[in-house]
Model the fold of this input.
Amino acid sequence: MAVKQKKFESVGGREISGSAAPSLEPPSFGSITRMIGWPVEAWLRCQEGVLKAVEPAATGWIERRREGAYAVFSTFEKLAKCSDLQEAASIQRDWLEGTMRRLDSDLHAFADHAVALSQEAMAATRYAAQTSTEIVTLTTQTAGRSDDVVEQAA
Done:
């Protein structure tokens, strides 16, 4: 079985799939298996892309939650030790500013995540359209060869 090297397009500075895609030439066990299996392959590639897009967003979100928890504990510790009302207000203001910075980071990360997911969805759609076109071509070629065999037999 011949294997064609396909490069999938680069989206957002990263390659969508670095693996070689199998050719759509009829395998030795018949093209019907390939025609039935390609939707599963396309779906799995889509899921792989989505998981790759989600990983940085999830990691960043967890890190910001960790920073937030640390800020709360640190703020409580500082408040417990302070004896001045003005100092307590300053500590609370610092905590609130940090919380707002993390919220801003969350919103930017959410926007970046939405863009990454939409790019992965577009790449998966392109892949599915490309492979479905190749499958249809393969099927047409196979049907044409079958017609030729029937004409030659007659």
